[in-house]
Amino acid sequence: MYRILTCVFSPHVYNEIHNGFLEAGCEVRNILIGEKYINKFDSLKTVLTSAIDEFKPDFVYSYGWWKDIIDINVFFDVIKKKGLFHVWWSADDPVCCGQVSLPAARRADLVFTPVDYLIPEYDKFGIKAYLQPNACAPRYVKLPPKPEYRNDIIFVGNNYSFRHVDEESKKSIFYKFRVDGIYQIIKPLADKEKNLKVWGRWWTDYDRAYILPTAYYGGILPVEEIPYAYSSAKIALGIQQVATSKTYVSTRTFEALGCRAFHITQYSPGVEYYFKKGVHLEWSNSVEETLELVDYYLAHENEREKIALNGQREVDEKHRLVHRARTVLDTVANHI
């Protein structure tokens, strides 16, 4: 089996694919490349070179938000100089394909994307891309409930609804579909003063499209506590980022289901493609439907638990990181 060096940028939010490779029987060394490497090219070169020389990987697998953290060409140059096969996962597709994914994909030997319709788009640039959707990491399993997380309703995730200027189009934009989800899934429950708790970054920041009332904000939840939160609440909410792909589903949806949480999420084509409404989870298309679903399932515990168990089984059978890792390994075997 392969020896794999995995490199993840911006480790505040990452997919833990290295654990999937470990479960698949590979030897893995994982490097987190965060803010400490900003403008420190020599430090990055030293750490990466040392890891390659000591670990002697068969290939490198990298992904994540590298912009404003490192010079991506410096990173790729080290790997190319060592003569290693380099796999890039375009995890920020499709929203940031032009800004983040393409500059890295153009230099990689093999590319994966969570978005089906971008595969032919990559081909136009002479880039061979394959599908790798999001999935559930091994840590996300049903755990004993903790009293501090026994809320009726929770949401775990960051508030990415800031306004930013796209470098290519020069347009000022929001992550519109995600913002729609916040207003459709989270805001109405706060407005109705439900027993709601939200954890994540930037929820009370002034520059967001939606500012959560502080009474419902729980701060930043340590990653090791997230499975306990999912395992303790009656309902775990979800919002989606992509409205246009049948293969893109938020990682948080897979994680919530993996913990046997009863999940209500914003509708998206991806959610409908992978899961069945009322069988594995519930989805909402409107503020009114969100409120109806929440009120109904809070009053029907047996139905909640049955659906939550079905959702967990579906994730365990098809959507764990080990499933994605095996697909990647099979594809790499045909190219390396």
From TrEMBL:
Nucleus is among the record's keywords: no
Residue ranges of domain Spore protein YkvP/CgeB glycosyl transferase-like in the record: 185-330
An example Gene Ontology molecular-function term: transferase activity
Keywords: Transferase
Annotated TM spans: none
Occurrences of domain Spore protein YkvP N-terminal (ranges): 11-113
UniProt xrefs under InterPro entries: YkvP/CgeB_Glyco_trans-like (IPR055259), YkvP_N (IPR024542)
Name by which UniProt lists this protein: Glycosyltransferase
Species per Swiss-Prot/TrEMBL record: Anaerocolumna sedimenticola
